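Researcher: Next sequence.
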Amino acid sequence: MTTNEPRPGRDHPGYSPGGQGPLPQQANPTWLGHVQPEFYRPAPANDRGRFRPAPLPALPAVRSRRRSAGVVGLALAGGFLAFISLFMVLPFLLGSTGISGFVIGFIASLVPLATVLLTVRFIDRWEPEPKALLLFAFVWGSVVSVAVTMLVQPYFSLVAGPASGLDYTTFAVTVQAPVVEEFAKSLGLLLLLLFARKHFDGPVDGVVFAFTIAAGFAFTENILYFGRAIAESGDPGTDLAVVFFLRGVMSPFAHAIFTGTTGLIMGLAARRWHNGLSVLAFGVGLVPAMLLHSGWNSMGPNFLAQYVLVQVPTFLLAVLVIVLLRVAERRLTRQRLKEYAAAGWFTGAEVDMLATGAGRRAALRWARSVGRGPQMRTLLHAATQLAFTRQRILSGRDVPAHQLDERHQLAEIAALRAAVVG
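Model: Next structure:
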């Protein structure tokens, strides 16, 4: 990596005479990072002509400590709620499955759980979320949302059941379960949006958190279904195999797709709006999640035909959306770092290294060969965070505070860069 950077000038992409932003197609490489012209501003110029840390104001460090405390506090609160919820959820599971059914169900449920969590890891590779928040999401889904569901369902049934005009079984499967379960799961998303906004700032973040919550909920629900197949059947081996095939093979992503739509919509809102309007997306996002959940639960005698004609295309559409989100995220990172390069902070080659998959892989291979793999990985993550901080600045939200973060991150990247170069 070099430290002699070009100064910004008219021959660099992103140069903006008179303080006006570049052409829309330059500033907006994808729909994911659309910027209104009135909010666009050039990246701060590197007047020294070299990538060196600038003196830092005290405020960014304070903000960083507060945000770290917010993440830790949310994780601790989630742990406390999970501990309280266990006193309700665990006896219910053991009473429904018995000890042997619970143990076998727990082990069998690890398979679909691993499938979904590995997918989460793949989606989250470009801009990894803090492990504490992912742990909060999983704990919320696997324990707290289950307890909320158990508490709310009787009241919802009492109020909405008679008004629906449906028999109890149909109501419970097609209305009660979708409404109450999606509400309980998505409450965790709402808490993440309110108390960890820095890390819930786009649709990819929303999908990652929603998939993690849903993976936890499905894990606990699978323990119940698999355990019951053992405890309540005259042929437990066969019944377990059937239930496992239906839930663990044919539909491990069902809950993830349901709740993922809520996370996607909340993330899109968070990218563009302030907290107040973003919270409204919680209610909007629940609607498609509940409809998808109800549609899944409504499949009856024609299950196989509906699965092939409806559920498989829905799954493929979800895969396509995730792929498009990842592509858009990479393009956005590249564009924002190019704007820093135009301001003299990076060279074009460094942008290619920091903002492309091939460049990152090559950089990590080189760094590992000289014993600096962890430093390079941290630098890549920091560069991605810098690009997303710039996106927050260009969104027009809380601009002065994010500009302080930007200065702090530029200085941090300078130190990381020196550690990598050696």
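Model: Residues 3 and 197 are 34 Å apart (CA to CA). The radius of gyration is 24 Å.
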